[in-house]
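Internal ticket #5521
Category: modeling
Description: The requester needs a full-assembly model to guide mutagenesis choices. All entity lines are attached below as received. Residue total reported by intake: 513.
Assigned to: D.W.
Attached entities:
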Amino acid sequence: MNSIALSVEDLSFSYSGKKALDKVGFSINPGECTILLGPNGAGKSTLFALITRLYDTRSGRIELSGFDIKKQTRKALAMLGVVFQQTTLDMDLTVMQNLRYHTALHGMRRKVAKQRIQEELERFDMYERRFEKIRQLNGGHRRRVEIARALLHKPSLLLLDEPTVGLDVPSRKAIVEHVHQLVKDGQLSVLWATHLIDEIYPDDHLVVLHQGQVKANGAIPKVLQQTGKESIDEAFFALTQGARV
Amino acid sequence: MRILHYWRAMWGIIGRELLRFVKQRERFISALVRPLLWLFVFAAGFRAALGIAIAPPYETYILYEVYITPGLIGMIQLFNGMQSSLSMVYDREMGSMRILMVAPLPRWFLLFCKLIAGTAVSVLQVYVFLGVAWLYEIEAPLEGYLWVLPALLLSGMMLGALGLLLSSFIKQLENFAGVMNFVIFPMFFMSTALYPLWKIKESSELLHEIARYNPFSQAVELIRFALYNQFNQEAFIYTLSAFVIFMTAAILGYNPSKGMMTRKGGGA
């Protein structure tokens, strides 16, 4: 098995002739948190739809832990945990019922599923609330449940598509901290799409996407050196020619 | 191990659908009220106007309410199939469909499970309806209630597959109103649900031909015969073939490299 958690090579995609992604390429190593930074319309969501195989990859290649998403779809998807931008929880079901549904889709045994649900919910301080309906939870808690759910099958890569959109500051901070702690704790790799610069930690890697192209890729000091700027803010501004985030 | 994975996923999907159904009481009540209104109001009013001759599977003269019951069962399944597809369009817009689509299982299998789950819900609705009809003294032979089960499963799957197929074409929830006008109503009215074929022929040859080849008619006839302990081979083959065609087209529609996703997303 390949040691690279995610490898994207030469990936292009267009909507009705308009290029959304143009020869995008980058990779994520195990235990790395990579921030996918780009203004609105940069192509972040398209990239996520391609990695999760919701769209078909026609030009270029995506590999998850060495498995080609197009040829070995099931093996590749088993390596992936996803938190989409919009909530994907069933509002009328309880936390537990939502998580059980996920473990069933991943073919987990009931006993193992129960144990994993407990572990992940405890990690996110949500175990006590497992019998509450999703509708009764606030936005921050719903997001925690979604992240816990994405981790139940122990993926090697966690994809987060702007997970903090619409959350208040304390909830946002808590989620950013949680995810970075997850990377520190184990071999989990993270690809976090955002346009909020304050969600980036100094140890993170950065992929700056603008108008469907990778404008910068690497550890933060490297990106700063490349752009000759002192802060991510300035570097981002320079790379995207002042595009609004 | 892989078989167990499929097995667990299938029960997970069915369990979720049943849970959702139980929690959405309004959906259950409206699914029941619609055919009951037809039975108690429409059929009662037409009782005197329409004479139903003796024709298989019936061995005696029957009341119009008795004739219309299998058609109303078909109506329950037709609406349920369309409701499932409506919820899939909604799920896709809202995002929860994505959780299903990124599960590490073949897409055809996931859609198939979704279909079985929807059919299970419609069968439940049908039995409750039959129970109420029985209280109203619209009774079929006792074994008929058992024989009708496989017929309900097939007709439910066929109509559900049609719903799936439609959901793969419909991009937005708003477009769904068109389905009501262009699919549900024509399918229901131009079928043997309300009038037998010979009666339709009396008024229009064209309508008769449409009703004859309408897959919904065949599903209704399959149910009608099964309810009276008889097997209608032609209706069975027709309904099965329609299911295979609709399901294959729906799977193609949901295939990221061939169907909906390509049309939505274009190519590189």
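Resolution: model delivered.
Comment from assignee: The interface with chain B takes residues 12-17, 21, 46, 49, 52-60, 73-75, 77-78, 80, 82, 84-90, 92-93, 97, 100-109 of chain A (CB under 8 Å).
Ticket closed.
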